């Protein structure tokens, strides 16, 4: 997820923990405890993304693909991150040090917030099509939620509204409310959201605000959490329907093919529109196919031609429910030989889930249109004679099935 979402999750966690603790013994103690919990939640929910400093270890794009959402995005390596975070707070923040030294309940609360903040970062990252491998080194396979867009305004609206109502400064409260109300409107005017999505976000904001104003900030935070969980649940059900329709369409487009995977990416704040890819073994078993399309689950309400083009919509689509945008086939034997011969492509295949290998460049079609380079594009043919990249983390190959292995690694 984006760091705005991670930050809001961390701040909401800190506020909820603070409000679950016994009343502070005095105003000064309460102020430092609240700030310590908010800062801990904020930092813990963003700490795993510090792996971006490791991207220079490999030439682009491999540095980002291999080392982002890497070791810091695992449950095992969350523990030293928590220790580092608490050590920094102890060394650099005298007020927090005094609090942790003198107040046992605050000490436990800060530790719990740090641990849960790290875990929530992994959980939210697991919701989208990018994926995580949280159980490395015991299981290095990538896991994908395929449920929500990587920048999801539902989370911004729900959590942002609840946190704005927690602000003690009235000016800050009004500014925050204006920001989280204005951003969806701006996104809609820019063509990033449909007007129906804007109406849904407005309803979420009103419900959260009503809960916060009637029941207090804690009730608002709980309502925001319920809205986020409910939205994920809606996306999960919609995703299941989407996969069923995509499989049926693929049966018609490529009779006799065997589906291996259907990466899904929903549109922001929109359970009806889905971008997708399909990876399959073609009829006969000698070739593989990678196809890209866009689907509407309710074409009478939102045909695919009306799904926002910036996120994969197809304005000129003839069919109202599903449009195929691209298809590529290749030899399974050729792919396996190429991986063995080109160590740069081999490293790239530890990340790629929907590989396109046209014209000597490899692109993961989850993140961009064919023929248009994106952050995943690797000119593997140009690098064929260059020294092999190192260090390459031993993540499982998402397309181990195409490479002829039953396991995530050979």
Automatic annotation (TrEMBL):
The answer to whether the entry has keyword Hydrolase is yes
InterPro entries named among the record's database cross-references = Transcription_regulator, YdjM-like
| Keywords in alphabetical order | Hydrolase, Membrane, Transmembrane, Transmembrane helix
Instruction: Please list every transmembrane segment annotated in the UniProt record, as residue ranges.
Output: 75-96, 108-130, 142-165, 177-207, 219-238
| GO MF term set | hydrolase activity
Know the name of this protein? Metal-dependent hydrolase
Per the UniProt entry, what species is this protein from, by scientific name? Telluria aromaticivorans
